[in-house]
Specification:
- The structure is a homodimer of 384-residue chains.
- Chain A has helices at residues 4-8, 66-70, 88-92, 111-116, 135-140, 153-168, 171-179, 185-189, 207-216, 233-239, 247-250, 273-277, 296-305, 344-363, and strands at 37-41, 75-79, 98-101, 122-125, 144-147, 199-203, 222-226, 242-243, 256-259, 283-287, 308-313, 372-375, 378-379.
- The first copy, chain A, is α/β, with parallel strands linked by helices.
- A 7-stranded mixed beta sheet of chain A has the order 2-1-3-4-5-12-13. Chain A has a 6-stranded parallel beta sheet with strand order 8-7-6-9-10-11.
- In chain A, helix 6 (153-168) crosses helix 9.
């Protein structure tokens, strides 16, 4: 598609609310005046960086904020080199003030790194999902952690619906026939279905889960959701989705399960061998949330035995997925690298959100409240 | 997915209306009493036939009507061998009464074959789309041609939305990275977009086009449609789609174009070099209608130059597509064999529709009026 039209719909939300005079309780309280050292860890785009002026989320284009930061006297270091004791990130840990990371190429901010980062005040996630940060250690150290809530929820919900359709309709075997010179309709059709009439359950119905349910509504499915809290009745009516208080009562009803929860100590490994064994035979699973919510080997075994009829997602444990990650080679998978939340449209939105928060930080202003993941030593409710 | 649950939602519609006593104007007028010779041309399923009891659309399972036909004294021949002067189909042309064909493995019913088929009265399409029949020759010969209108419209509309998302979000390059051991988010993201906010135009807003528009509604796109006739205002309001009377004024506005027209002499080759040159640079095209609506080479050239940003569909010219069909090897394609209308759910519905029409034919009753493609020497309006 043409690229220029995207910019038109950018730069919304993210600048509302939070303009109060109350201070941020950071390690050093306010942003002290003067030059700050800001480090961003993104993925490298190399030859792709110049192919699209809106491709902001890579090291080369660095969220499009370099000139703005440097013109105010701040230092802005950007790298993709994030692993091991001799990486570029490690060099800057001792004296950086702000660290910008992203779920698509996660810099793991461990307790040890937090301890070394004596000047660190603010951790910003360009995107959604801050589980690559040791949030408890960040809270204990008095740091503020914030993400650009809402910046890519539409992107992820759209992607989930695409993956549901790819699995239900058995798209990939057909495409592989095409590129390998074959034509065998039967080899696709015997396990290709319509989505209509099937039971779809989302585990988690936060911002992304709700957008997914809205998009599923015209498909005439039987929609179920499990969450800590029931949706308000208006949204429940609008989507026709039915609340299931007991997760393990919902799951065996589902033809298709979509994971829409953050990764926390409670959700880690939640879909293990035992839970997968209790699902409907041939269930389809879509997981764009976090790879570590699944037991890696249990998913491989499920796909191999046919207990799982198809598995699609863009999240892995760890990321980047190593060449020998077994999800690359299991049957009936429709995996991609971590991509759903980093469309060009999403990049424009999360770059704008990061810039807005930096601006507020420099001015000593609060962020929009929904962006906080750790504030005043407390974790946001979804991470507790 | 589990297979048994599908049957529950099958067998609807298709049995309404049309129960009048008026006769079919066929070559021999009524079905004359006594044994009929019925020939069905389907794709072979081989080892897949036994994998799913609802896999009805293959030669092995033969729409599930063999026992029913034979118990009434009719002869039922089924084959996939449909090409050339010595094929199995050709042997039965001189004395068959009814020929059942399908768009997924089309038996081309030429004027010459019609001339040879002295006993032929009825041509039934198991599915939708009877362009593989020379409809004018059928009309001139006084034959009745009917398809199972509505049997797979939901199946195709769902599939179109899947293909839109696959192209917009640049799914396939990511999946190919996974299976080839790579990880390069930038190589996907630089041309991955959200569907939200984009302009989608459907060329044709009949049964399938309307179902697509309904499913697109929650994606917050700018929806356009071109058709011979404006939709009724209620449906227009419901989908928010805007009518475009002039096709060539609509097309250059579209980021995504979906083809939803039958193949007729007017639509054959409609998207040629000149028309493609006038589209928005990088336009995405989804075509599950018929391959011959496109100029084959113009699509290849468009994809190679970047004028077309992505092309996806399941229809080819001819079918099966030969091993050297250039659409198999052009860049940015997301093609499959002809599959969207032959999901298990669709097979159950079109098998039921064919059985219902045969039953009415034996009894000398009319079909549901929307099923007729050629009746009393006249073509249905969409084929004129």
């Amino acid at each position: 598609m043409a690229m220029k039209r995207v910019a038109a719909s950018a730069l919304r939300a993210f600048t509302s609310s939070g303009n109060s005079t109350s201070s941020l309780l950071t390690r050093r309280l306010h942003a002290s005046p003067g030059s700050k050292k800001i480090v961003g860890v993104f993925y490298d785009a190399k030859e792709y960086a110049a192919k699209n002026p809106n491709f902001l989320g890579c090291t080369e284009n660095a969220l499009g904020i370099r000139q703005w930061l440097e013109s105010q006297g701040h230092q802005y270091i950007v790298t993709s080199d994030k692993e091991g004791p001799h990486c570029e990130l490690e060099k800057h840990i001792p004296d950086l003030h702000v660290l910008i990371t992203t779920p698509f190429h996660p810099a793991y901010v461990t307790a040890e790194r937090i301890k070394k980062a004596k000047n660190l005040q603010l951790l910003l996630t360009a995107g959604i999902g801050s589980d690559h940060v040791d949030l408890k250690a960040a809270a204990d150290a008095g740091l503020t952690v914030a993400e650009v809530t809402g910046s890519n929820v539409v992107s992820v919900a759209e992607d989930e619906l695409m993956r549901i359709l790819i699995l239900v309709r058995n798209f990939l075997p057909g495409h592989h026939q095409v590129i390998s010179g074959d034509w065998n309709v039967a080899g696709i059709a015997y396990r290709a279905y319509d989505l209509e009439g099937k039971t779809v359950g989302t585990v988690g119905a936060g911002r992304i889960g709700r957008l997914l349910l809205q998009r599923l509504k015209p498909f005439n499915c039987n929609l179920l959701y499990h969450d800590r809290i029931k949706m308000d009745p208006e949204l429940e009516n609008q989507t026709g989705a039915k609340f299931e208080e007991d997760l393990d009562k919902m799951l065996p009803k589902c033809d298709i399960i979509v994971i829409n929860m953050p990764l926390t100590e409670k959700t880690r490994g939640m879909f293990d061998k035992d839970r997968i064994a209790k699902l409907k035979k041939g269930v389809l699973i879509v997981n764009n949330a976090r790879g570590a919510i699944m037991d890696t080997q249990a998913v491989v075994d499920g796909c191999s035995s046919g207990q799982i009829g198809g598995y699609s997602g863009d999240v892995w444990n760890p990321q980047p997925a190593p060449k020998d990650h077994p999800w690359r080679y299991m049957p009936n998978q429709a995996m991609t690298p971590h991509i759903s939340g980093t469309t060009i449209d999403a990049q424009i939105r999360y770059a704008a959100g990061v810039k807005d928060m930096l601006d507020r930080y420099f001015k000593g202003e609060d962020f929009p409240p929904q962006h906080y993941i750790v504030k005043d030593g407390e974790l946001a409710s979804q991470y507790r």
